[in-house]
Amino acid sequence: MLRRRDFLASAAAAAALPVLPAGVSAQTAASPAGAPRIPPGFVWGASTSAYQIEGAVKEGGRLPSIWDTFSHTPGRIADGTNGDVACDHYNRYAGDVDLMSQAGFQAYRFSIAWPRVMPQGTGPVNPAGLDFYDRLVDKLLARNILPMACLYHWDLPQALQDRGGWHNRDIANWFTDYARATVSRLGDRVKPWAMLNEPSVHAIFGHGFGNHAPGLTGWESYVRAQHHQNLAQGTAITALRSVRSDLKLGTVFSLQPIFPSSPQPQDVAAASRFDACWNTINLDPLFHGRYPAGFEQAFAPLVQANDMAAIRVPVDFLGVNYYGPSWIKHDPAAFLAQAGYGAVPDGTPRTLLGWPISAQGLTQVLVRLRDGYGNPTTFITENGACYEDPAPANGVVNDPERTAYIRAHLDACAAAISQGCALNGYFVWSLLDNFEWAEGKRRRFGVTHVDFDTLARTPKASLLYLSQLMRAQGRAATP
Ligand code: FCB
Q1: Which residues lie below 8 Å from residue 17, measured CB to CB, with a gap of 6+?
Q2: How far apart are CA 377 and CA 366, in angstroms?
């Protein structure tokens, strides 16, 4: 565990290292001239998800999720790892909260593991599962860190998958019962609640391409998973309104600009279809009560009389996860309305995963929300980058590329705010290196390095950069 003294010592050591982006020294990073122009009141947070960090998959009565099953299936995870131990956050949460507090984070977005709280997915609540989140929340509050909980970050109880999972319409009620039980226990202390994490990504990768759990494939599978997530989200928000009146209820979408990979009409049309499947398949039902133009027919067999009214519910906030844009080409073989990933323009910078980088894209998605969706109160609930990090040296990991990525995206946040977007905060993905889904543990997004053998945590320069900024900005009001 990192003690305060150690953290400050390593921060001091790091300040003397040439680790910050070109043109930004340890002093100017936090100065008005060098820092992104973020107004006071902005919430600074870190983000994680249960399966990616908790480990302890058999402790406290937890039963398997679809990600336990998937990651233990040979060939599914690039490096053959799984989340059995992950960062062992379940046992080390107190040290991780201390780390956040020392860095100056004001908020923490984490997810609740459904298979801890209701191991069978429905039926009796497992008190020991909720006890863990109780301890975590109390520890956060003791350190003055605002908890923001996400109810579903892809770890469906396997028992529910065995009953059809997101293909079964009953899941709207299963999810609502689980949400009610969880919020009833924690809602006295946790106010902002996100329902789902990136429903379109879960539908596309988990139920269309099949490279994420539960590994299902095809267009119809994708459509069913998408509609039932939309329905579950709306049904749960409405039910939670009557649990307590002081909750802030929202959900989290992955949004990105989509470009055609060539000016050919077929590619332009494919890009527009992909935009629907990634972005507006979430946004249009929630904010306008309809599926995107051209997709009504695909969803018609699933949509029952009151569904669209149940999905179109007011939200107190929208979480936006942003990593970068995509370039799309027509591909008759692609399950996704014949829209596949295409060539990225030459010279486009990319992260280690090959994801294109465009900080302006972040401003663009926020402007789209401003103009097309009533400018909802928004938080960036994930933003970050994967790079090959060097080994820790002198108590710090030097990650100048990640630091530059974060800095550029904070500038993009400032630009969006100056254009009138209702952006209220930024949560970096991720607090810790973790189990990165199909990539396993070989791909790192953390601002804190985790040694997966010893589980030791070491701050990266990106954390120290954020820490400087957060301290300079002072404490923000809570959302
Ligand atoms: C997002 C996921 C998150 C993490 C990042 C890199 O799509 O929500 O869990 O894997 O990508």
Answers
A1: 394, 396, 398, 461
A2: 10
How far apart, in whole angstroms, are the C-alpha atoms of residue 322 and residue 409? 9
**Given this model, what pLDDT does residue 26 score?**
42
- Cβ-contact 69, 214 below 8 angstroms: yes
- Which amino acid makes up residue 12? A
Active site residue 198: yes
The residue annotated as part of the active site, out of 59, 220, 296, 382, is 382
Domain span at residue 12?
4-477
Q: Is 445 in the pocket of ligand 1 (CB under 6 A)?
A: yes
Using CA atoms, how far apart are residues 476 and 464, in angstroms rounded to an integer? 19
* Rg of the chain over all Cα atoms, to the nearest angstrom: 21
Specify whether the CB–CB gap between 328 and 342 falls below 8 A: yes
**Strand, coil or helix: 81:** coil
Which secondary-structure segment (H or E) carries 110?
Answer: strand 107-111
Residue 382 CA to ligand 1 center (angstroms) comes to 8
CA pair distance 8, 190, nearest whole angstrom: 29
The structure tokens 């049904």 sit at 235
Count of structural domains within the chain: 1
Q: Minimal CA–CA distance to 60: which of 9, 3, 135, 7?
A: 135
Separation between Cα atoms, residue 231 and residue 223, nearest integer Å: 12
Please report the pLDDT score of residue 73 as a whole number: 98
How much is the pLDDT for 33? 55
**Burial of 367 from C-beta contacts in 10 A (0-12 / 13-18 / 19+):** middle
* Residue 24 reports pLDDT greater than 80: no
- Residue 15 pLDDT exceeds 50: no
CATH number at residue 102: 3.20.20.80
Answer whether 389 contacts ligand 1 (Cβ < 6 A).
no
Which H/E stretch holds residue 320?
Answer: strand 317-321
State the distance from the centre of ligand 1 to the C-alpha of 211, rounded, in angstroms: 14
On whether the CB atoms of residues 54 and 455 are closer than 8 A, the answer is no
* Ligand 1 proximity of 322 Cβ (cutoff 6 Å): no
- Whether the upstream peptide bond of residue 36 has omega within 30° of 0, thus cis, is no
Model pTM score: 0.93
Give the integer Cα–Cα distance in Å for 370 and 420.
8
**Strand 248-254 with 192-197, pairing:** parallel
DSSP state letters, 161-223:
HTTTGGGSTTHHHHHHHHHHHHHHHHTTT--EEEEEE-HHHIIIIIIII-SSTT---SHHHHH
Distance 263 CA to ligand 1 centre (A): 30
Residue 144: count other Cβ atoms within 10 Å of its Cβ. 10
* Ligand 1 atom closest to the CA of 254, numbered from 1: 7
According to DSSP, the residues that pair with 326 across neighbouring strands are 258
